[in-house]
Amino acid sequence: MRELPQGRLNPKVKSVWRIRSLIGSGLLSLTLIIAALIAAIALRYQGAWPWLLFVVVLVLCVAYMVLRVIIIPNLAFSRWRYAVNQDEVDLVHGVIIRRRSIIPLVRVQHVDTKQGPILRAFGLASVSIATAAGAHEIPGLLLEEADALRDKVAVLARIAQEDI
Question: Is 68's pLDDT higher than 90?
Answer without folding.
Answer: yes
